[in-house]
Design brief:
The complex is a heterodimer of chains A (822) and B (170). Chain A has 822 residues and is α/β, with parallel strands linked by helices. Chain A is built from 25 helices and 33 strands. The longest helix of chain A has 17 residues, at 78-94. Chain B is an alpha+beta fold and 170 residues long. Chain B is 49% helix and 12% strand. Chain B is built from eight helices and five strands, in the order αααααβααββββα. In chain B, α2 (18-28) runs parallel beside α4 (51-61) and α4 packs across α5 (65-74). Classes of the chains: A alpha/beta (822), B alpha+beta (170). The A-B interface holds A 136-137, 154, 158, 163-171, 178-181, 183-184, 186, 414, 747, 767-768, 788 and B 1-6, 9, 51, 54-55, 58-59, 62-70, 73-74, 80. Bound molecules: iron/sulfur cluster (3 copies) and FE2/S2 (inorganic) cluster (FES) (2 copies). Chain B: Belongs to the complex I 24 kDa subunit family.
Chain lengths: 822, 170
C-alpha cells in the first residue's frame, strides 16, 4: 500500500494505482471523459487534471499518472477548476449543443460536466462540424458532429471486442472517428462502443426517441440467450423493456454484452407474443380459457404413464424444470429430455464418467488467469461471444497463448500469435487422442496420472493414435500435433474450452472424455487458470443438467420422437423447444409430431412446432419471472420479474404447478420454495439461498472424481465429389429464440451457407447466389457466402432459421456430405 | 457484411489485379512493422491504394481494415484515388501568391475542369496546389511531374496543356 494525501485527506491505495484510482477507492471524485476502467489508460481529454505538490503544482492527468509514496494531490483548486472549464469550453467549441433532440440527454458525460462546471458561455467560437450522420444500419447511429474524440469506442472495439471497426481517421483538426474508407459501420454489432461513448455520437437506434433516460426503471436481470450468464439491466417503462442499460460494474464482464444480449431484447414485448391459450377445434387453433386448456392437458396426462413424454428448452428456470419433471412423474412417466437428447451428452455422459460430475471443473474467470488456452472450434466465439471477449483480453492484454483446434478458421484465429490447427471435419476426437498419445510417449504426463482409474486401458487404447497415424485422417501434420501436445503439457496453467449445443452433435460424450483425459494426464485441473470448460448452449443448459432434466430411466429426446412416430408416445408436452427447426432431420420430426395423438406446446411464440399442437399455452419470458439460471461455469443467478406478464401468459412454473394440482399432486407454491428444495438436494448447490446468491450469483461446487475413459472415435469417410457440411451457430443468434429479437434479425436475417474461395471459384459460385444444398435425406436452398476462413471442401451453415431449413439436409451427423448446385 | 453494403462496395470498385499486391506483401511478410513498407509498395505499384488492395493487405497482414485506413489518411503521402499520369502542381506560397499564382490556379481549373487534388476522368491530369516549392526566384511556379515551369503566365498554361496533351499515356 502507498500512503498519500488527496485534498488534505490522508489515504492509502494499492501500489501501481493511478491517481484517479487512488481517489476513487477513497471516495474522492475526479471527473473523467476519456478514461474507462476496462480500457488501457489513454490520457487524451485532460478533464481529470489534478495538481501534484511534488511536481511544483504542475497539472497532471489523474487517469494516467501513477501514485508514489507521500504524494500530495489536490483535485479541485481554483486553477484546476479553471483548466477543466477550459477543456469543456474547447470541446463545446465544435460540439452542436443539440441536447434537446439528442437521445443522450440526461445520460451524457459532456452535458453533466458542463452543468457541474457551470460552463454557460464560451469565450471562443468556431464552426461546428458538418459530418454526415451514419444511419446505414438499424442498430447504431453514428453522429461524429457530437464526438469529443475520447477514443473509447475505437479502443473498446480493439482491446475487448477485437473487431477493430472504428479508428481515428486523418489528423489535426480533421481528425474523426470512422470506419475504413469512410464507409458505414459493418461490424458484429455488440454495441460496446455505444455503451462507452460519453456523448451522443453513438446511439442505439432501436431505443431512439423511446424515452428519456431518467424515465426508465432499471431492472437487473440475467441474459436469456446463451450460457455465459451475462448480467443485464433492462430499461423498463410502461411495462415495456425499451432497452438494455449499460452498467460498467455489472457482472464478471463489467457490463459487456454481445449483439444478442444488447440488441436482442425485443422478443420480450414483441407483438408476436402469444397472449391467450389456444385449443385446436375442428382443425384450427382457437382461443380458449386457461381452465379449458389446462383441463384438456390434465386429462391427457392423468395416468398416462410412459405414453406421455416431455421436452423442455433449457431456457426455463431451474425451478420450472424441477416442476416439469415432477409433473411428468405425477403422470407416471420418466420420459423427459432437452436439447435433442444429445446436445448435453458431453456433460451428462462425458464429464459424468470422466469427472464424476456432469459439470465443468473450471470457470469463465479462469480464462484470463491461464497461460495457455486450447479452444476446440472457433465457434466458441460465436456461441458465447462474451466468453470470446474474455479470450480476446487474455490473449491481447495478458499474453495468454491461444491454440485452436477447429474445422475452420474464425475470429479467434486472428488474435495475435493464435495457432489454428484446421483439421478435417469430424476428426477432432482422433486429434485429441493423438495429443494424449504424444503426452504419454514423450513422458510429459503428470506423476499423478498413472494412479487414476482407467490409465492402463487408456494407454492401450491410444496405441493406434500416434500423431503419424492421425495426421492422415485429420489433414494435420504430425509435427503440428506434437507441437500442440508439448505446448499444452509445458504450460503451467492450461484451460480447454469447447462449445456444445444442438448444432454440434460431434461435441459429444467422447469429445468430452478425450478432452478430460488431456487435463487429467497432465494434472491441469482443479487449480486456478487450469481445467476444462464445456460451454453449453442456452442460458440454463447447465441448470437443466443439474436439475436432472434428461433421460435417466425413460426415453431420451430422440427416442421420444421415435415413440411419437411409432405411436408408443401418445401425449407430448413441449415447453419452449422448437424441434421442427432445431432438431436434426426435419422431415422425420414433422412426421413424428404429426403422428402423435396429442401435442401440447407452451411457448412465447407461435413457433413451427406450436403450429402443429392441439393445445398451445402462452408462456412468459425470463423478464416476467422469478427463479434461478445456472451458467456454463455453474454460476447460479437469481432473476426477478422486470415487467408484468404479457397478456394472459403464465410462467411455466405456474403452468406446471397448476397441472400437478389438477393431477392430484402437491405443487410447491413459489419458486423460492423449490429453490430451497434444490439447495437441499442438488450436489454443489448445498447451502444456497436467494440471499446467498446476491447480485453476482454463486458458484455451485464441482467435486471431481477422476477417471480415464476411452473415447470412441468414428472415422469420417469422405464421400467422393461431395462437400462436408458442418452446422453451427451464427454470432448473432442463439437457438431459435433470437429470431424474435429484432437486433439479431436486422444484422443476420436469414440462413446461409459459407464456402471457401476455392470451392466458389471451382463451382462458379458468386456471393449471394442461391444454392441448392442436397444430402441423402433432403435438400434446401441457401444463399452463398464466400469467406476466406473456410477450408476447401467444407461448408458451414447456422441452424437457427426455420425458413432456411438446414435440418432438411442435416440428419444429426457431425459431418453431412452434400452436393451443391446453382 | 450486410448485403446492401457489400453490393455498394462491389459496384464502386474498379477491378484490380491482386497478384501485384501479393508480390509486394510477399516481400515484406516476415518483416516486423511491415505495414508502412507494404502500403508504400502497393502505392508505387498501383499509383494509389485502391480499396480492394487495402482490404486485401488487411487480410494478409492480419490488421483491421480500419487501421489501414487510419494510416492511409494520417500520412499525406498516400493516395486513395487513382492519380493522373501527369501531376500538375502550382505553388501558392507567399512569393508565388503575390506574383499571381491565384490566376494561374484558376486558369488550370477552367481548362482542365477539375479542382484542387482532383483528377481528370481520362486519368491524364491531377492538379494540386502546393506550398513553397523552394524556387521563389522563378515565381510564380508550376511543375508537371518533375519538369519545372517558372515565371508562369496564363498563356503558358495553354502551352503546357497543349504539350502534355500530346504525350502518350503509356
Ligand atoms: S458495435 Fe461492437 S464491433 Fe461494432 S464498432 Fe461497436 S464495439 Fe466495434
Ligand atoms: S464517438 Fe463517442 S466514444 Fe468514440 S471518440 Fe467520439 S465521443 Fe468518444
Ligand atoms: S447471449 Fe450470451 S454472451 Fe451474449 S450477452 Fe447474453 S449471455 Fe452474454
Ligand atoms: S480522463 Fe484522464 S485524460 Fe481523459
Ligand atoms: S513561394 Fe512559390 S516557390 Fe516559394
Amino acid at each position: 500500500m502507498v500512503n498519500l494525501t488527496i485534498d488534505d485527506k490522508q489515504v492509502t491505495a494499492p501500489k501501481n494505482s493511478t491517481i484517479y484510482d487512488a481517489a476513487r477507492i477513497n471516495g474522492i471524485k475526479i471527473p473523467i471523459l476519456c478514461h474507462d476502467k476496462k480500457l488501457k489508460p489513454f490520457g487524451a481529454c485532460r478533464m481529470c487534471l489534478v495538481e501534484v505538490e511534488q511536481m511544483r503544482g504542475r497539472q497532471v492527468p489523474a487517469c494516467t499518472t501513477p501514485i508514489t509514496e507521500g504524494m500530495i494531490i489536490r483535485t479541485s483548486t481554483p486553477d484546476i477548476i479553471k483548466a477543466r472549464k477550459m477543456v469543456l469550453e474547447l470541446l463545446l467549441l465544435n460540439h452542436p449543443i443539440d441536447c434537446p433532440v439528442c437521445d443522450k440527454g440526461g445520460d451524457c458525460d459532456l452535458q453533466n460536466l458542463t452543468y457541474e462546471y457551470k460552463v454557460n458561455a464560451n469565450r471562443f467560437s468556431d464552426e461546428k462540424f458538418h459530418h454526415a450522420i451514419d444511419y446505414s444500419n438499424p442498430l447504431i447511429e453514428r453522429d461524429m458532429n457530437r464526438c469529443v474524440l475520447c477514443g473509447k469506442c475505437a479502443r473498446i472495439c480493439d482491446e475487448i471486442v477485437s473487431f477493430g471497426a472504428l479508428t481515428f481517421i486523418s489528423r489535426g483538426i480533421e481528425t474523426k472517428i470512422g470506419c475504413e474508407f469512410e464507409g458505414s459501420l459493418n461490424c458484429e454489432f455488440c454495441g460496446s462502443c455505444v455503451s462507452v461513448c460519453p456523448v451522443g455520437s453513438l446511439l442505439a437506434r432501436p431505443f431512439k426517441f423511446k424515452a428519456r433516460f431518467w424515465a426508465l426503471t432499471n431492472q437487473k436481470s440475467v441474459c436469456g440467450y446463451c450460457g455465459t450468464g451475462c448480467n443485464l439491466t433492462l430499461g423498463v417503462k410502461d411495462n415495456k423493456v425499451l432497452t438494455t442499460v449499460y452498467d460498467e460494474n455489472q457482472g464478471f464482464h463489467n457490463g459487456q454484452l454481445c449483439c444478442r444480449g444488447r440488441f436482442g431484447y425485443q422478443f420480450i414485448n414483441s407483438d408476436k407474443r402469444l397472449t391467450t391459450p389456444l385449443v385446436r377445434k375442428n382443425g384450427t387453433l382457437t382461443e380458449a380459457s386457461w381452465d379449458e386448456a389446462l383441463e384438456l392437458v390434465a386429462a391427457r396426462l392423468k395416468g398416462a404413464g410412459s405414453s406421455a413424454a416431455a421436452l423442455a428448452t433449457p431456457r426455463l428456470t431451474n425451478e420450472e424444470l424441477v416442476l416439469f419433471k415432477r409433473l411428468m412423474e405425477t403422470a407416471g412417466s420418466a420420459n423427459y429430455d432437452h436439447s435433442a437428447g444429445y446436445a448435453h451428452a458431453a456433460l451428462t455422459e462425458g464429464f459424468a464418467k470422466s469427472f464424476g460430475a456432469a459439470a465443468s471443473p473450471a470457470t469463465i474467470l479462469d480464462i484470463q488467469k491461464s497461460d495457455l488456452l486450447l479452444v476446440i472450434k472457433t465457434d466458441s466465439y460465436e456461441t458465447h461471444p462474451v466468453i470470446g471477449f474474455e479470450i480476446n483480453m487474455a490473449v491481447k492484454n495478458k499474453g495468454v497463448k491461444l491454440n485452436i483446434l477447429s474445422d475452420k478458421r474464425g475470429k479467434l484465429s486472428k488474435l495475435p500469435d493464435a495457432q489454428t490447427l484446421v483439421h478435417t471435419p469430424g476428426s477432432e476426437v482422433a486429434v485429441i487422442n493423438a495429443l494424449a498419445k504424444t503426452i504419454l510417449d514423450d513422458k510429459l504426463a503428470a506423476g499423478t496420472a498413472a494412479a487414476i482409474p482407467g490409465y492402463a486401458d487408456l494407454e492401450k487404447a491410444l496405441a493406434g493414435f500416434t500423431p503419424e497415424a492421425v495426421a492422415g485422417q485429420s489433414g494435420l501434420s504430425s509435427d503440428a500435433i506434437k507441437r500442440l501436445a508439448r505446448d499444452y503439457a509445458a504450460a503451467e496453467k492450461a484451460l480447454i474450452l469447447f462449445p456444445i449445443g444442438n448444432a454440434y452433435p460431434g461435441h459429444n460424450a467422447d469429445l468430452a472424455s478425450a478432452v478430460a483425459n488431456l487435463a487429467l494426464l497432465t494434472g491441469k485441473l482443479g487449480t486456478e487458470g487450469s481445467g476444462v470448460l464445456c460451454m453449453a448452449e442456452k442460458n440454463n443448459s447447465q441448470g437443466a443438467v443439474d436439475m436432472g432434466f434428461y433421460a435417466t430411466r425413460g426415453l431420451n429426446a430422440g427416442q421420444i420422437m421415435d415413440g411419437c412416430a411409432s405411436g408408443a408416445v401418445k401425449t407430448l408436452f413441449v415447453a419452449g423447444e422448437n424441434p421442427v427447426v432445431s432438431y436434426p432431420n426435419r422431415a422425420a420430426i414433422s412426421a413424428a409430431l404429426d403422428k402423435v395423438e396429442f401435442l401440447v406446446v407452451s411457448d412465447l411464440f407461435m413457433t413451427e412446432t406450436a403450429a402443429m399442437a392441439d393445445v398451445v399455452l402462452p408462456a412468459c419470458s425470463f423478464a416476467e419471472k422469478e427463479g434461478t439460471f445456472t451458467s456454463v461455469d455453474r454460476r447460479v443467478q437469481h432473476i426477478k420479474p422486470a415487467i408484468g406478464k404479457i397478456g394472459q401468459s403464465r410462467t411455466d412454473f405456474e403452468i406446471f404447478g397448476q397441472l400437478i394440482a389438477k393431477l392430484g399432486g402437491q405443487a410447491p407454491a413459489t419458486p423460492a420454495t423449490v429453490f430451497g428444495e434444490i439447495a437441499a438436494s442438488t450436489p454443489g448447490y448445498a447451502g444456497m439461498s436467494y440471499a446467498s446468491l446476491g447480485e453476482t450469483g454463486a458458484f455451485a461446487q464441482v467435486a471431481v472424481t477422476a477417471a480415464f475413459v476411452v473415447p470412441r472415435t468414428v472415422a469420417v469417410e469422405p464421400a467422393a465429389g461431395k462437400l462436408a457440411l458442418v452446422t453451427g451457430s451464427a454470432l448473432y443468434h442463439n437457438g431459435t429464440q433470437s429470431q424474435f429479437g429484432e437486433g439479431p434479425m436486422y444484422v443476420c436475417p436469414e440462413g446461409y451457407v459459407e464456402l471457401s474461395r476455392t470451392d466458389a471459384a471451382r463451382l462458379k459460385i458468386q456471393e449471394n447466389d442461391l444454392l441448392n444444398v442436397a444430402s441423402a435425406i433432403g435438400s434446401t436452398k441457401l444463399k452463398a457466402r464466400i469467406t476466406p476462413r473456410m477450408p476447401e471442401g467444407v461448408l458451414f451453415s447456422p441452424y437457427h432459421f426455420g425458413a432456411a431449413g438446414v435440418n432438411q439436409v442435416w440428419g444429426g451427423a457431425p459431418v453431412t456430405w452434400v452436393t451443391v448446385t446453382k | 457484411m450486410s448485403e446492401a453494403v457489400a453490393q455498394q462496395a462491389k459496384e464502386q470498385e474498379p477491378e484490380v489485379d491482386l497478384s501485384i499486391a501479393d508480390k509486394v506483401i510477399d516481400k515484406y511478410i516476415d518483416l516486423p512493422g511491415n505495414l508502412m513498407p507494404v502500403l508504400q509498395g502497393v502505392q508505387d505499384e498501383y499509383g494509389y491504394v485502391p480499396r480492394k488492395v487495402a482490404d486485401y493487405v488487411a487480410e494478409r497482414l492480419n490488421v483491421y481494415p480500419s487501421q489501414i485506413y487510419g494510416v492511409l489518411t494520417f500520412y499525406a503521402q498516400f493516395h486513395l484515388k487513382p492519380r493522373g499520369k501527369f501531376i500538375i502542381r502550382v505553388c501558392v506560397g507567399t512569393a508565388c501568391h503575390v506574383s499571381g499564382a491565384p490566376r494561374i490556379v484558376e486558369t488550370f481549373f477552367d481548362k482542365l475542369h477539375i479542382g484542387h487534388a482532383e483528377t481528370t476522368p481520362d486519368l491524364r491530369y491531377t492538379f494540386e496546389k502546393v506550398a513553397c516549392l523552394g524556387a521563389c526566384g522563378m515565381a510564380p511556379l508550376a511543375m508537371v511531374n518533375d519538369d519545372t515551369f517558372g515565371k508562369m503566365t496564363v498563356q503558358k498554361v495553354d502551352e503546357i496543356i497543349a504539350e502534355y496533351n500530346q504525350r502518350p499515356m503509356k
